[in-house]
Write a structure and sequence with these properties.
Blueprint: H1 2-24, E1 26-33, E2 38-48, E3 51-58, E4 61-64, E5 66-71, E6 74-81, E7 84-93, E8 96-103, E9 106-114
Antiparallel strand pairs: 1-2, 1-9, 2-3, 3-4, 5-6, 6-7, 7-8, 8-9
């Protein structure tokens, strides 16, 4: 009986992970606090053919996200902003996301909420 429960539990794990990831996909309103100003925009996360895709838009400019990895509530990705490679790491908590944008030795706070 214990073996049967363990096997059933094993097969349910991917379903739970998929449900968590699908909660993170969609459109997010974000804000990044930089020394000169606050940058606001939208981030779109989606899954296509088993691969995560995304973009961030701010001030009319859309930048594709690369190397997107979502592991439970954690996300990491990279983006090239005007020749500067930015590394982003964050954590989802329901309808919010908090994280850090690292670029040129600086760490800038990122926060956001899921769009309705």
């Amino acid at each position: 009986m214990t073996t049967l429960i363990a096997i059933i539990g094993f097969f349910l794990l991917p379903i739970n992970d998929t449900a968590i990831v699908s909660d993170h996909l969609g459109t997010w309103n974000y804000e990044v606090e930089a020394p000169d100003m606050s940058y606001k925009g939208t981030m779109i996360l989606k899954e296509e053919a088993g691969e995560y895709k995304g973009s961030m838009t701010s001030q009319g400019i859309t930048i594709p996200l690369t190397n997107i990895e979502i592991d439970g509530d954690d996300i990491t990705f990279k983006m090239n902003v005007q020749g500067f490679m930015c590394s982003v790491s964050g954590e989802f908590d329901g309808d919010t996301i908090t994280g850090t944008v690292s670029v040129e030795g600086m760490s800038l706070p990122l926060k956001g909420t899921k769009a309705e």
